[in-house]
Design a protein that fits this description.
Strand content: 15-25%
Helix content: 25-40%
Structural class: alpha/beta
Shape: globular
Number of helices: 14
Bound molecules: ligand C6P
CATH class of the largest domain: Alpha Beta
Strand order of the largest sheet: 4-10-9-8-7-5-6
Number of strands: 17
Largest sheet: 7 strands, mixed
């Protein structure tokens, strides 16, 4: 089936070669070659990830940490070496600092319940920002409700950047943790997390970074950032769904109580007492998503082979081109015009609901997301109910930017 011809990239990625790795890209949507621009929601998977997961099912399928038999030993080695791959990808010091989770959401809930809950008191504060995804809001609200703590929010400017002066002021002796998104899924803003972490640490406050939209788009180094926790999801970084990871500094993980109880997180159990396993297994109760972890490692290896800087450069080129050309369309208004953006272009068009735009684009074979992107407070901040969001990945091309813009012109034609 026909696929859009990839144009040469000036940024060092062989996009045609990359596209050949992704079977799902080579199909039509409503009779047109698919243009997949919903990468912030989830990415397509390269053959290397699909084959890794298939290989596990065909050769090594067994439970981990439990069996004496060969397959179980192979599954255990593959699962634990996936942890080492993730440790290396994030620049962590020790693979025991990597906890497998279902994704970013579960990682944040784990920090809320296991790290913050035991040390929070009525009147204490949790500081997040106005551009968080619901998964970095709701767990903290639940915790506040249960404990009498208070949720504080760093406001955002009209350009979609954080008000850093306000951030510094809001860091108080009552702040028990800062939760901040590295790259906003609704605005594309890249936040100055390193600087924010420094400011928080100067007051002894730990910081959790939501890296769901950062890991797919470039280099992340948790030791350079000096963050206390870093959460991300596999499926947005070309890996399987249902798997992600939490990086946590070893000294924090050692202090933390388990989040869930069950098999594989214990040293010994009697009816009188249970002794817990050391981190990270203490936080991985039950049979884990073994094939997910292995597939995630394959995805990160794939990204590494491309090179983080080349990935960033390629996607920035597409994002800049799409932004410039979308703004040439009368009535298009960008939501989020931060100086540093990554991955996503979010906008509204006068007189046309984003869902209508999404539907027309779909009939043109262009997949984008229209909605609040699970960041309703961002929509409230900009007095809108939804945006159109085109989000880019390693396999997108300038031809596809053309297709997006042509489809938007069609929307204009239909709605006048
Ligand atoms: N954003 C989007 O279309 P999970 O669902 O746990 O894999 O990831 C949650 C999450 C957390 N933080 C950020 C910044 C995110 O973007 C997401 C997921 C998707 O924008 C689905 S709502």
């Amino acid at each position: 089936m026909a696929s859009p011809v990839a144009t040469a990239t000036r940024t060092g990625l062989d996009v045609e070669q990359i596209r050949a790795d992704f079977p799902a890209l080579h199909q039509e949507a409503h009779g047109r070659p698919l243009v997949y621009l919903d990468n912030a929601a989830t990415t397509q998977k390269p053959r290397q990830v699909i084959d890794t997961v298939t290989h596990f099912y065909e050769h090594d399928c067994a439970n981990v940490h439990r069996g004496v038999h060969l397959l179980s030993q192979r599954a255990t080695v593959a699962y634990e070496s996936a942890r080492t791959t993730i440790k290396a990808h994030l620049g962590a010091a020790d693979s025991r600092e990597i906890v497998f989770t279902r994704g970013t959401t579960e990682a944040i809930n784990l920090v809320a319940q296991s790290f913050v809950r035991p040390r929070i008191e009525p009147g204490d504060e949790i500081l997040i920002t106005g551009m968080e995804h619901h998964s970095n809001i709701v767990p903290w609200q639940m915790l506040c409700e249960a404990t009498g703590a208070e949720l504080k929010v760093v406001p955002i400017t009209d350009e979609g950047e954080l008000e850093l002066d306000r951030y510094a002021e809001l860091l108080s002796h009552r702040t028990k943790i800062v939760g901040v998104v590295h790259v906003s899924n609704a605005l594309g803003t890249v936040n100055p997390v390193k600087e924010m972490i420094e400011l928080a640490h100067a007051k002894g406050i730990p910081v959790l970074v939501d890296g769901a939209q950062a890991v797919p788009h470039g280099a992340v180094d948790v030791r350079d950032l000096d963050c206390d926790f870093y959460a991300f999801s596999g499926h947005k970084a070309y890996g399987p769904t249902g798997i992600g990871a939490l990086y946590g500094k070893r000294e924090h993980l050692l202090e933390m109580v388990p989040y869930q109880g069950g098999g594989d997180m214990i040293l010994s159990v009697t009816f009188d007492e249970t002794l817990y396993a050391e981190p990270p297994h203490r936080f991985e109760a039950g049979t884990p998503n073994i094939e997910g972890a292995i597939g995630l490692a394959a995805a990160l290896e794939y990204l590494e082979a491309l090179g983080a800087d080349a990935v960033t450069a390629h996607e920035t080129e597409l994002l800049d081109a799409a932004t410039k050309r979308a703004l040439d369309i009368p009535g298009v208004r960008l939501i989020g015009a931060a100086r540093r953006r990554a991955g996503a272009l979010s906008f509204v068009m006068d007189g046309v609901h984003p869902h209508d735009i999404g539907t027309i684009l779909d009939t043109e074979g262009v997949a984008i997301r229209a909605g609040h992107h699970c960041a309703q407070p961002v929509m409230q901040r900009f007095n809108i109910s939804a945006t159109v969001r085109a989000s880019f990945g390693v396999y997108n091309t300038t031809n596809e930017v053309d297709r997006l813009i042509e489809a938007l012109a069609k929307v204009k034609e239909i709605f006048g």
